[in-house]
Amino acid sequence: MAKRTFVRTRSLQNGMRIDQYIVDKSGRMLVGRGTILDEYMINSMLKMGITGVYVGDGEEEPEKEKKPKEVVISPKVQETIEKNIVSDRSKVKLTESVKKRVEEGIQYLYSNTDSETFTDATNSIASDLMKAITENDAIAVDIDALKVSDEYTFKHSVDVATMAMIIAKKHGLNDKEIYEIGIAGLLHDVGKSKIPNEVLNKPGKLTDDEFALMKQHSLFGYGILKEKKDISEPIRMGVLQHHEKINGKGYPIGVPAGKISRYAKILSVADIYDALVTERPYKKAFSKRDAVEMIMSMTDELDISAMKSFLGSVILYPVNSIIQLSNGEQAKVVENNPECILRPKVVGLTSGNVYNLAEDLKCASLVIL
């Protein structure tokens, strides 16, 4: 396995293999993991203000995610698993009937922005999501378990709304605010209904003009909601500002941190994470681990408090899932640590060893592949 080293951008040399992804402000991939760097790429990263990146020292192709082969677990190992297992925090669960209602509702909203029943339909969906959260006192979310639709816009809207509601709950917002941020999440991309389909669904890279138009979708969304007198201004501002950054380099206006609404700061984290882990015609999905690492690196763009609430709300490796360790052993996740979501406690399926990745110094060199 290749060693991963952090190198300052000014020290990069032609021929080095980058061991991370480089994305633009909207989460679009610019340089893929495993790419061999050349002078043009290095100069471009310097111009973007990227101070350093991870590189690999090996010449092999970047590792591809493989489905672990099934391992027969011995009674002794099973006993160790049962002894150490701790159930995950309560997660949001949507029944099939709720998923169907939500999918139909979202499609209706994005196709009928001028409808007199627009707000009622929005409230109905938000109520379904709020009920799913409160029924089992959910305090965490597993995006893989939320699948609502195969259509990106609808799935993404529900993912962002649900995640934002859980983050808001972790953040200490009250029920009314959690409900409102759910509405803002559902509608954060409603302005895309004003973008021509040939731009919205373009399978390749957008031109500069097309991207400039796409960046107007939050303004379009605010314009749509401004006509709805029963939708509050905090919801509208969440929709308008969900692409703003705390360094003032976001869009559509480029406002500084102090002028970005609380809803928008939370929505921004949920929006970027879900966009990263979702496959699109123009990009592959990032792994959840890589997406979280990228979120954690965006301290100059994302509100740190919202980021911490996000990290404490998302479950990357659900208990009982099988993962591959860098020592070659497969392991079962037995306990998650909300303070260190990338490093749960696991039990090796062949050795029966307990690896507390977050707290045991002897596991410091072990990573989940």
Furnish the topology, listing elements before pairings:
Layout lengths: L3 E5 L8 E2 L3 E2 L5 E3 L7 H9 L4 E5 L18 H10 L11 H16 L6 H18 L16 H20 L3 H13 L9 H4 L7 H7 L2 H10 L6 H9 L20 H16 L10 H9 L7 H8 L10 E3 L5 E6 L9 E4 L5 E3 L13
Antiparallel strand pairs: 1-5, 2-5, 3-4, 6-7, 7-8, 8-9
Helix pairs in contact: 3-4, 3-5, 4-5, 4-6, 5-6, 5-11, 5-13, 6-10, 9-10, 10-11, 11-12
Report on the structure:
With 369 residues, the protein is of the alpha+beta class. It has 3 domains: 4-56, Molybdopterin biosynthesis moea protein, domain 2 (Alpha-Beta Complex); 75-88 and 316-363, no CATH class; 99-311, Hypothetical protein af1432. The chain contains 13 helices and 9 strands. Strands 6-7-8-9 form a 4-stranded antiparallel beta sheet, covered by helices on one side. The protein has a 3-stranded antiparallel beta sheet with strand order 1-5-2, with no helix packed on it. Helix 6 crosses helix 10.
